[in-house]
Specification:
single chain, alpha+beta, two-stranded antiparallel sheet
């Protein structure tokens, strides 16, 4: 079974590396870092679930 899994992905080729001044990162890591930054930005931009109903409850109004 292990031999079959080894044949699925060819790992005997040079890695794709991103050069930026003195930093060298594999492309896979750059993609993961980019996705993490996007997830962080979305988490900051989107309101918390139920924030509108809590604000309405504090004002004593209706949440609808």
């Amino acid at each position: 079974m292990i031999h079959v899994l080894g044949a699925i992905f060819n790992l005997s080729h040079p890695a794709h590396v991103v050069h930026w001044h003195f930093i060298k990162l594999p492309l896979a890591n750059v993609i993961v870092i980019g996705l993490m930054l996007v997830a962080f930005a979305v988490a900051i931009a989107l309101p918390f679930p139920g924030a509108a109903s809590r604000a309405a409850a504090r004002r004593g109004g209706d949440s609808s």
